């Protein structure tokens, strides 16, 4: 259950203020179809994060050892530092939604925007850490939904009330704490 709860918490905090959250707000404003947008986010996240968690868990299976565990621990610390940098959604990343319905536009846009995003990289690292693609996928998807469903339903009203800097610092602290905890475990076991 550690894989499930840790994955949910890490991604929910990392997603606050992330470009996919900004995308959810833009799509909600354009379509005004919250159920279709939420289902599109769910579909895209399940597909993207399952592949990411699978890559992480398979990499851990093949590359188990001191240097790999060290790399995973350091990647959590790096993601913590990356979380401190606010995301923006560039004009070329905004979806062209004139030809697609809300569900399809959301699913495609979320899947593509999530590629290389910090939550996808966190999912890879979590998959490597816990070596359980299914529980990590369920947890990271739950975290994405916890962060993005309110963004879809409440839109920019949230952005005016939630102190994103505080949440960003909490998320960064969580990533760094996990990385430091993993480094301590490596040091304590001597391998």
Number of helices: 9
Oligomeric state of the chains in view:
single chain
Give the biggest sheet: none
Per DSSP, what share of the residues sits in E-state strands of 2 or more residues? under 5%
Helical percent range? Answer: over 70%
Radius of gyration (CA) equals 17 Å
Task: List the uncertain runs.
Answer: none
Between the first and last Cα atoms, what is the distance in angstroms? 25 Å
User: Which structural category do the helix and sheet elements fall into?
Assistant: mainly alpha
Account of the protein in words:
With 191 residues, this protein is mainly alpha-helical. The chain has nine helices and no strands. The protein is globular. The two termini are 25 Å apart. The mean pLDDT is 82.
What's the short story on this structure?
This protein has 191 residues and is mostly helical. It has helices at 2-15, 19-31, 34-62, 66-83, 102-114, 118-130, 133-154, 156-161, 164-189.
List the SSEs and their pairings.
Elements: H1 2-15, H2 19-31, H3 34-62, H4 66-83, H5 102-114, H6 118-130, H7 133-154, H8 156-161, H9 164-189
What are the defining features of this structure?
81% helix, mainly alpha, globular, 191 residues
